[in-house]
């Protein structure tokens, strides 16, 4: 009987490994076909299935280099940073430093003075699920001023001017994507920990996970990809400033898979924090939102995902906690349609 059980365990392990390999081969086939049709767009993909890692990549680091993109090549993950920030917020909740339904009033920097109409109105969960009703940074104008580094001119004074002049939350409780909301969450983290956002994300995510290619301020590295705008022109990586917590982290497929592994582990701090972010904090006829996380459901699956677009790169991260798989897609061109189409194709034909 013991021998039979051991044999069964080995067969199950081989079956699981073969299943994972089969999925990875199908994913590679989709990515390879996309690259064949779009040879100017470099791509790196990482996939995890029941703790087994798989990677595929196509293209070069830049047009002048013959160095191939691989799982360690650094991209801008842009607004995927928001998932990292919301995980930090959830960790602070677990440490009893804040509650998701706390009002933001007492956690803001002194430069911000909320109008009486706004006091005891906006909760931390409102910021994290994009329903605070606060006005946002005008990226259109900033791009006109500096198309390479549009956020260069955004300072705490800029943000204070926007927030302090707001007298009414016209769409409070309704979804409206917000950069300023996640910038405030970063400042709230700084207030409760007495450290910079850079220090917080390093001590609570980067160092514990040993994800050495996940970069904050210093990202001039040899394995960095070159970003391209939708027209193919070279686009600089965004430089770190006060909006860091909303989208300025750089990373790669390998590090993001390591993060996904931890997220899918219900017993770790990061995994437990992720479960908090997966709670539904906003719902309408079009979407369900956790803390920084989009929640999509069908008849068989619940998946959690977040996309990211800088001026020169596009990315998306997605995972299924119940089935223990996760995927990260990184493109070296701003092309939100391509990265969404790739995820849809993989999900509909393989992962669903």
Amount of beta strand: 5-15%
For the termini, the CA-CA separation is 36 Å
Quickly give the CATH architecture of the domain at 31-99 and 196-351. 3-Layer(aba) Sandwich
Helix and strand element order: HEEEHHHHHHEEHEHHEEEEEEH
Low-confidence region ranges: 10-19
Main sheet characteristics: 8 strands, antiparallel
Structural class: alpha+beta
Largest sheet, spatial ordering of strands = 2-1-12-11-10-9-8-7
**How many distinct beta strands?**
12
**Oligomeric state of the chains present here:** single chain
Question: What Rg do the Cα atoms give?
Answer: 21 Å
The CATH superfamily of the domain at 31-99 and 196-351 is known as DD-peptidase/beta-lactamase superfamily
Mean pLDDT: 93
What is the CATH C-level name of the domain at 31-99 and 196-351? Answer: Alpha Beta
Q: How many DSSP helices?
A: 11
Helical residue percent band: 25-40%
Walk me through what this model shows.
Keywords: Signal. The chain is α+β, with helices and mostly antiparallel strands. The protein has a domain at 31-99 and 196-351: DD-peptidase/beta-lactamase superfamily (Beta-lactamase, 3-Layer(aba) Sandwich), CATH 3.40.710. 39% of the residues lie in helices and 15% in strands. It has eleven helices and twelve strands. The chain has helices at residues 2-37, 81-94, 124-128, 139-145, 156-164, 179-193, 197-209, 244-247, 253-263, 269-277, 336-351, and strands at 43-49, 52-58, 75-76, 227-228, 234-235, 250-251, 282-283, 288-289, 294-297, 302-309, 314-320, 325-331. It has an eight-stranded antiparallel β-sheet, with helices on both faces. The protein has a two-stranded antiparallel sheet with strand order 3-6. Helix 2 runs parallel beside helix 6. The longest helix has 36 residues, at 2-37. The protein starts with a helix and ends with a helix. Residues 10-19 have low confidence and may be disordered.
